[in-house]
């Protein structure tokens, strides 16, 4: 019987905080208790924001916590060709289309309906889905900036059956239905980095043989997108555990964008790895 495989997959676009520590420690503990493997993946496709210096600082923080992982560490920036190949497969299946809309365009187009996706962002109204083939070709030939979106209705229809994943976050396996349509035509290739988290994560979970995805509850709804991509690309679907998030004193989830206190800050204040583990229940 094969061993279960867990992974911690942070993005080095800022310093790690207690929320990251919790997820990393939980993955490591679950791997240890099940006789499984614990892998580390560096999700650094956003090269302007994910620097080598932040990557090295992140590795140092994890080592300070006492974590050990298998080598080599997978770095997504070294596998961009694989993500491009997956994107091309979906394009060849006629399931994606170029989108020339800016964020402002989308905000204006959704101002009246105020429809939102599961993350609370304006739900894309499908503006560029209705462009003619000639119009798309002309604008692409002119080099107009564009993203690539998944035609979600066509994608779901091509699968031809309801999709479900196994969620074990409550401690008891539950069969959860995918609600991919709630995302609309999600972006699969960003204008700025040439790929997306959604494409990269499903390719790399399959590449690394990940059997249990243990990550924050904030990514629960994104699992529906990943399930669709796994089926379209012929990839396995892992089991999922979406754990509770660590909040700050104001009840907001810890985040880099809020400037939440980092592990490095805590270390400078004299907090020990044992203090962090105990505070987080490890």
SSE layout:
Blueprint: E1 5-8, H1 18-33, E2 37-42, H2 52-64, E3 74-75, H3 80-92, E4 96-99, H4 103-109, H5 133-141, E5 147-150, H6 152-159, E6 164-167, E7 174-177, E8 187-189, H7 197-207, E9 212-216, H8 222-233, E10 239-243, H9 263-268, H10 273-279
Parallel strand pairs: 1-2, 2-3, 9-10
Antiparallel strand pairs: 4-5, 5-8, 6-7
Helix pairs in contact: 7-8
3D structure, described in words:
With 282 residues, this protein is an alpha/beta fold. Helix content is 36%, strand content 15%. It has ten helices and ten strands. The strands form four sheets. The protein has a three-stranded parallel sheet with strand order 1-2-3. Strands 4-5-8 form a three-stranded antiparallel sheet. Strands 6-7 form a two-stranded antiparallel sheet. Helix 7 packs across helix 8. The longest helix has 16 residues, at 18-33. The relative contact order is 0.18.
Question: How many distinct beta strands?
Answer: 10
How many strands, which pairing sense, and closed or not: the largest β-sheet?
3 strands, parallel
Protein structure class: alpha/beta
Low confidence ranges: none
Mean pLDDT across all amino acids: 95
Shape: globular
Q: Please give the order of strands in the largest beta sheet.
A: 1-2-3
Order of H and E elements: EHEHEHEHHEHEEEHEHEHH
Helix content: 25-40%
- Total of helices: 10
Strand content: 5-15%
The rounded Rg comes to 20 Å
Separation of the first and last Cα atoms: 28 Å
Précis, in short:
With 282 residues, the protein is an alpha/beta fold. 36% of the residues lie in helices and 15% in strands.
